[in-house]
Amino acid sequence: MNIPSFFTGICMLITFHIESPSITTNPHVAINRDFFKDSKFVHTAWLGFLQSKDTKRVISNVPMFIYENKAEGYGKIVCVPKAPDNWTAKFKGKTKVEKISIGKTLTQGILNNSIGEKDFNIYSFFTNADDLLANPDFSKPSTPKFPSTVYIYIKAGTKWNIIAQKLIKNLAEYSDLQFRTANGVI
Known about the structure:
The protein is of the alpha+beta class. Helices cover 28% and strands 33% of the residues.
């Protein structure tokens, strides 16, 4: 018997039988998905802001969406401008009506993939259906209960690739996670 071949075989056997991380075994967490493919699950779009919990820094006029599939879960989609300072300057002096018009154009372009990675890093903060507060009114969006696991996806073309998962204890941590992710600190 060749000892090096034996050990190589054992290593291969062990490698192939290691349990996959929970990200891949959870039935509601797809490794690659397209949150915009079925638009009936994208309920809301608006220009919002991201705020850090410690420094109170803000990134404003950020396109945001709510993805909700009652069977799978809830995702807050955040489109972070690649140049936040220049982005904010574009909105200075605009009226509310002008901002609404810009927001509609942006959200339509982002949803149909004509506006995307060139101008934004687009993230989804997804929570599984079993980590949502029960909402008897199906016409209103669900919200994550805390603590809960949030799966962070980044958009690449039409696919959304999971980049991290975090256990979040409260709403302040959830908000801060979005701000830190927007600034490249997950």
